[in-house]
């Protein structure tokens, strides 16, 4: 592959990563616990899909989800930030700020890992999460710092009206990110709030 083509791919990949990092941070402000987690997961999966297009790698959704989980772990930190959102009053804002930085950092790190793997000719078939976990962890720390330095106006506003929340839930369900049961529970919570 020529250096010019690779340079063009890397620039495009950097743009994809940055955009998805920003959208992940915005999703961190969704006021409903768990919904924000699913939104960030969907954003990260879409980022991997787009990186596959940039580097002409066949995308495998099931493998993509498994690799995200393998690299990000059990996401206890994100779930802990979700729990903060349950505190009346300031919980939504504090949890959202915390989750925005964690989500942005995680998305940045995932993007960097997949970019590094794909630009060296890797595919889903030879992706080794164990080997790349240390690289992910280093990029996660850098991503969190980058997220903290972003200005609030750089992060998209996430509407929190019930209609907007229901629309987002329906999209997650239609994309297969939520089961019917999860969808119904979250829908009931929005409607009964």
How is this structure best described in words?
This protein is mainly α and 193 residues long. It has 2 domains: 3-156, no CATH class; 159-193. Helices cover 73% and strands 0% of the residues. It is built from 8 helices and no strands. It has helices at 3-27, 35-54, 61-72, 76-84, 91-119, 129-149, 162-174, 180-191. Helix 1 runs antiparallel to helix 2, helix 2 packs across helix 3 and helix 4 packs antiparallel against helix 5 (91-119). The longest helix is centred in the middle third of the chain and has 29 residues, at 91-119.
What is the 3D shape?
globular
Question: Are there runs of 5+ residues with pLDDT below 50, and where?
Answer: 74-96
Structural class: mainly alpha
Instruction: Let me know the largest β-sheet.
Output: none
Helix-strand topology string? HHHHHHHH
Q: Helix tally?
A: 8
Into how many domains do the coordinates divide? 2
Total beta strand runs: 0
- Determine Rg (CA atoms, Å): 17 Å
Beta content: under 5%
Key structural traits:
single chain, mainly alpha, globular, 193 residues, 8 helices
How do the strands and helices of this protein lay out in sequence?
Layout: H1 3-27, H2 35-54, H3 61-72, H4 76-84, H5 91-119, H6 129-149, H7 162-174, H8 180-191
Helix pairs in contact: 1-2, 1-5, 2-3, 2-5, 3-6, 4-5, 5-6, 7-8
């Amino acid at each position: 592959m020529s250096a010019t083509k690779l340079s063009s791919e890397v620039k495009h990949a950097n743009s994809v990563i940055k955009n998805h990092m920003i959208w992940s941070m915005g999703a961190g402000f969704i006021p409903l616990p768990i919904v924000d987690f699913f939104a960030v997961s969907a954003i990260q999966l879409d980022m991997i899909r787009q990186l596959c297009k940039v580097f002409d790698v066949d995308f495998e959704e099931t493998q993509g989800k498994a690799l995200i989980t393998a690299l990000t772990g059990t996401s206890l930190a994100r779930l802990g930030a979700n729990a903060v959102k349950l505190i009346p009053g300031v919980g939504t804002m504090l949890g959202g700020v915390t989750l925005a930085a964690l989500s942005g950092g995680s998305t940045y790190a995932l993007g960097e890992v997949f970019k590094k793997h794909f630009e060296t000719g890797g595919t889903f078939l030879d992706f080794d999460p164990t080997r790349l976990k240390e690289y992910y962890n280093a990029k996660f720390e850098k991503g969190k710092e980058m997220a903290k330095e972003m200005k609030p106006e750089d992060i998209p506003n996430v509407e929190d009206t019930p209609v907007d929340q229901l629309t987002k839930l329906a999209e997650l369900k239609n994309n297969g990110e939520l089961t019917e049961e999860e969808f119904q529970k979250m829908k009931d919570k929005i409607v009964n709030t």
